[in-house]
Amino acid sequence: MDNIIKILGIVFIVFGILYFTRPEIMERMIEFFKQGKRIYLAGLLRFALAIIFLIGARECHRFWIIFTLGILFLIGGVLIFVLGPEKIRRIFDWYQSQSLLFFRIIAVVPMVLGVVIIFSA
Fold first, then answer.
1. What does the mean pLDDT of the chain come to?
2. CB-CB neighbours of 28 under 10 Å
3. Is residue 8 within 8 Å of residue 49, measured between CB atoms?
4. In total, how many domains does the chain have?
């Protein structure tokens, strides 16, 4: 299971690099999730990640880091369902109104998170 978590860490890094080099991809993804009830797909994805991290945490070198990330993904998934599509769309609208520099700074987050996941697994 720790190998699956390491692969997820690599995926996070790849997405971060992709967002950093081509921030317009993030814009397109936001537009996709803003339509209808597609935001719930993101909530389900967060729940899936939470389950993987929570189950796999006990096999990892740094249990508490992976476990904490699992809890954070779980909270994120719950928030998506609690806030609902309209409030999430407003958050997305604010996010889309930010500068290109902001997008690039935010793109560093999944890269760092991926590195932390890999070294903790």
1. 92
2. 10
3. yes
4. 1
